[in-house]
Write a structure and sequence with these properties.
Length: 338
């Protein structure tokens, strides 16, 4: 597939990456001499009104916001029958890449990353938008030391019709998925708080809260742990871990949405932790020695699966996750995670 020379009024410089729904290019706005990331729907989805609606929904959600901690959109247009978004080009890396490459973050730095993300998500809540797919790879740290929440491709305005999301099929990433979202229930900003909590746990420990490696880490098992397992604790898993940050993280991951802190509380508590521990962005990394028996309690807390016939196997969750991944947005260098 040849790289187009022009998309809308933007000159295309290079392909940055592509995912299941389309491509992302680096471009230049000639009028303003500004670099942009251009996200365009894939050719194979050009005739799909559902995909077009899902794609443009991201643009409309972002267009309602103007905040330093949320990626900015500059223009929505159409090229050869395909909708595109011209967005802020982010110089930096996402937290998922940083943790995978360099290991866990210093707790104070992780607190600062989550604090800035909470500030951005508080803005999305103000305009009645739920992100629905918060995770480390959707939190980008710019070279200027600012955390940007990206990839609102799965966001849903609270007033919007649910026609795109089939009943009982959840949308999101299993490792950070709120229980109510996994069960196909209505979600609000508290689902994003849950995902932030799972992301915080991942940043500090080096792994998502309900995934430790091995054959039992398939999608259905991970989702089941979100629904049934005891909440893991950073202060139990990591020796001498900050108790305030650990307790806050556990509350964020509560199965009960009403127990989770609000974004305002997160900003206050995380600000205190970050200040006390010298938290900063870009974040620094540390070596973490996990307790040998940490996490076993969560696994052992799971009830034994009831006998079931082949016709009654609980594959719906796995299928739902498969659909999500099939239509989800892949990670690209532009950090628009498409």
């Amino acid at each position: 597939m040849a790289t187009p020379a022009q998309i809308g009024r933007f000159k295309v410089k290079r392909l940055l990456g592509k995912g299941a729904m389309g491509e992302v290019y680096e471009g230049v706005d000639g009028k303003l001499d500004r670099r942009v990331a251009i996200k365009i729907l894939g050719r194979k989805h050009r005739e799909s009104e559902e995909f077009k609606t899902r794609f443009l929904r991201e643009g409309r959600a972002l267009a309602q916001m103007n905040h330093a901690n949320v990626v900015q959109i500059y223009e929505i247009g159409e090229h050869e029958g395909r909708p595109f978004l011209a967005m802020e080009f982010l110089d930096g890396e996402d937290i998922g890449v940083l943790v995978k490459r360099n290991g866990p973050l210093l707790p104070g730095d992780a607190a600062e990353v989550i604090r800035q993300a909470a500030i951005g998500l508080a803005e999305t809540q103000r305009v009645d938008v739920v992100h629905r797919d918060v995770k480390p790879s959707n939190l980008v740290v710019t070279l200027a030391g600012v955390v940007k929440v990206t990839d609102f491709g799965l966001a849903k305005a609270l007033q919007e019709d649910l026609s795109i999301t089939a009943t009982g099929v959840f949308v999101g990433t299993p490792d950070y998925l709120a229980p109510e979202q996994a069960m196909g229930k209505e979600v609000d900003a508290r689902a994003d708080v849950y995902a932030l909590g799972c992301s915080l746990y991942h940043m500090c420990s080096g792994h998502p809260p309900f995934r430790k490696g091995g054959q039992d880490d398939h999608y259905t098992a991970v989702v089941r742990r979100h629904l049934k397992a005891e909440r893991p604790e950073l202060k139990v898993e990591i020796p001498e871990f900050d108790e305030v940050l650990s307790d806050l993280c556990r509350r964020m991951m509560s199965r009960r949405p009403d127990v989770r802190p609000t974004f305002e509380e997160l900003k206050e508590v995380l600000g205190e932790v970050s200040g006390r521990m010298g938290g900063r962005v870009p974040p620094r990394h540390t070596e973490v020695t996990l307790r040998a028996d940490a996490g076993k309690a969560a696994a052992s807390a799971l009830p034994a699966p009831a006998p079931r016939s082949s016709a009654a196997r609980t594959t719906a969750i796995a299928v739902g996750v498969g659909i999500t991944i099939g239509i989800g947005l892949g990670v690209v260098i532009a950090f628009m995670n498409f």
